[in-house]
Amino acid sequence: MKSAFSPILGLLALDVAAITASPVTVNISSKLQEVDGFGFSQAFVRAAEFQAADSVLQKKALDLLFSKDQGAGFSIIRNWIPSSSNFTILPESPGSPSTTPTYRWDRWDEGQLWFTKQAASYGVEKVYADAWSAPGFMKTSGREALPGYLCGTPGHDCESGDWRQAYANYLVQYVKFYQQEGLDVTHLGFLNEPDFKPDYSQMQISPNASEAISFIPILRQTIDDARLNLSITCCDATGWKKQSGFTDALVAADMQKDLGIITSHTYSSDATYPLNTSLHVWVTEAGVPRSAGGFVPTWYNTGALNEGLTWASKIATAFVDANLNAYLYWEGFEINAQESASHLIDTLGDEVLPSGVFYAFSMWSRFIRPGAHRVATTGSVPNVVTAAFENTDRSVIIVFTNSGSSSQSAQLLVPGRSSAHAWLTDNSHKVARTSVKGSGSSIEVIIPAHSVVTVKFD
Ligand SMILES: *[C@@H]1O[C@H](CO)[C@@H](O)[C@H](O)[C@H]1NC(C)=O
Ligand SMILES: *[C@@H]1O[C@H](CO)[C@@H](O)[C@H](O)[C@H]1NC(C)=O
Ligand SMILES: *[C@@H]1O[C@H](CO)[C@@H](O)[C@H](O)[C@H]1NC(C)=O
Ligand SMILES: *[C@@H]1O[C@H](CO)[C@@H](O)[C@H](O)[C@H]1NC(C)=O
Ligand SMILES: *[C@@H]1O[C@H](CO)[C@@H](O)[C@H](O)[C@H]1NC(C)=O
């Protein structure tokens, strides 16, 4: 039965699509934004959990996350710089900003030192270290987990003095501890969701970003004096709209010369339009609120926020409509944490269990490598978002995201390239090889309903 029917279904899909689609032509000489990579975090002691996991399970999860042939090939990690007294490198106030502080280095960093070494062993070169808060004694609230501002920033005077330089020194010292361990932190952030007031580590800035504007030049100078090669990020706002406001303020204050990357999360709004900056822009955190569902391996069912195809569409929109340069999910690997869908891999007994969201990322991150450029395409396929890239090895990648309920056929032309391979993810395929018909100027791929197809031209 099955073998008798499937060729007929395939033919029907082809006929329907041929009427509506126009051939997709890739223009390799039109260089759009650069891709810095894809990534995730193991912050909040998740790196320690990963480090302590059963060694077989641990290896499987690492391969899935970082391997370029067997896994997602993630290329960026985001560590947090702990500010709680248990884990910070500066648990005690030196008494005043000008007194030499006594740092402590536990050579563990909540498992993040081990995690960073693992990532590096797979070739990860971008390590983003981000502070959620300054140590409590440097803040107007006196506590790292109470809403407050950095003392010494405009309008935030403290009896204990101006701690801006001390905070910059502290951040640079954290990077130096990693350097001592043979690991290069490449990106440094001093805020996390500064437009939000939770009851854990955090620090505020005003909507006009005046606190960040008064701190960034001090941090830049401190990094340069230490002869570190570090890109400064700002501001990891809760969502795109908030970060758009911060970005306009930073640009107006001429902060682009000191900053490296504009960073945003997507909890309060998604990345759907370009920000007004000449800097690269990263989504550095994204996930699923617990109220929207737990961890599921589902690719597509109802289009819920915890399903894979939902995230495939978000990623496509972010790269095509918002000119994004990198996309990071919240956490990577967690053990028995299925009440939340904000991590990519969980466990099922002795096995690793990837989520649908993991496969959405894989369809991009395994194939589009750091240093790639997005390139323009003409033509269109109904209900399908098309995104094309050229890697530094000259391979060309086209990602088709079909969120519609009918199968489509795409005719593809990449001038100068003739042989292509394709991979499919849908409800019954996970980054599985799928067929490409024809060669040269008449290449054709089927994009099933509710699927992503990634095509690679060598
Ligand atoms: C391809 O892109 C380049 C650079 O943007 C442009 O000059 C050229 O006209 C484009 N070619 C076609 C066929 O659209
Ligand atoms: C920090 O240490 C204290 C005392 O040892 C402990 O009670 C608390 O649970 C620790 N906090 C965290 C976040 O581990
Ligand atoms: C920035 O916003 C804060 C808080 O609303 C305000 O007090 C301050 O005057 C503003 N600074 C500038 C330079 O506009
Ligand atoms: C600084 O680091 C970047 C990668 O993060 C690298 O491309 C660049 O060559 C480095 N610059 C120097 C002067 O080492
Ligand atoms: C960027 O600037 C243009 C021109 O000033 C403006 O129309 C647009 O709304 C701005 N976009 C954002 C996201 O602020």
UniProtKB/TrEMBL annotation:
<protein>
    <submittedName>
        <fullName>Glycoside hydrolase superfamily</fullName>
    </submittedName>
</protein>
<dbReference type="InterPro" id="IPR039514">
    <property type="entry name" value="6GAL-like"/>
</dbReference>
<dbReference type="Pfam" id="PF14587">
    <property type="entry name" value="Glyco_hydr_30_2"/>
</dbReference>
<comment type="similarity">
    <text>Belongs to the glycosyl hydrolase 30 family.</text>
</comment>
<dbReference type="GO" id="GO:0016787">
    <property type="term" value="F:hydrolase activity"/>
</dbReference>
<dbReference type="InterPro" id="IPR033452">
    <property type="entry name" value="GH30_C"/>
</dbReference>
<dbReference type="InterPro" id="IPR017853">
    <property type="entry name" value="GH"/>
</dbReference>
<dbReference type="Pfam" id="PF17189">
    <property type="entry name" value="Glyco_hydro_30C"/>
</dbReference>
<keyword id="KW-0378">Hydrolase</keyword>
<feature type="signal peptide">
    <location>
        <begin position="1"/>
        <end position="21"/>
    </location>
</feature>
<dbReference type="InterPro" id="IPR001139">
    <property type="entry name" value="Glyco_hydro_30"/>
</dbReference>
<keyword id="KW-0732">Signal</keyword>
<dbReference type="InterPro" id="IPR013780">
    <property type="entry name" value="Glyco_hydro_b"/>
</dbReference>
<feature type="domain" description="Endo-beta-1,6-galactanase-like">
    <location>
        <begin position="101"/>
        <end position="241"/>
    </location>
</feature>
<feature type="domain" description="Glycosyl hydrolase family 30 beta sandwich">
    <location>
        <begin position="371"/>
        <end position="455"/>
    </location>
</feature>
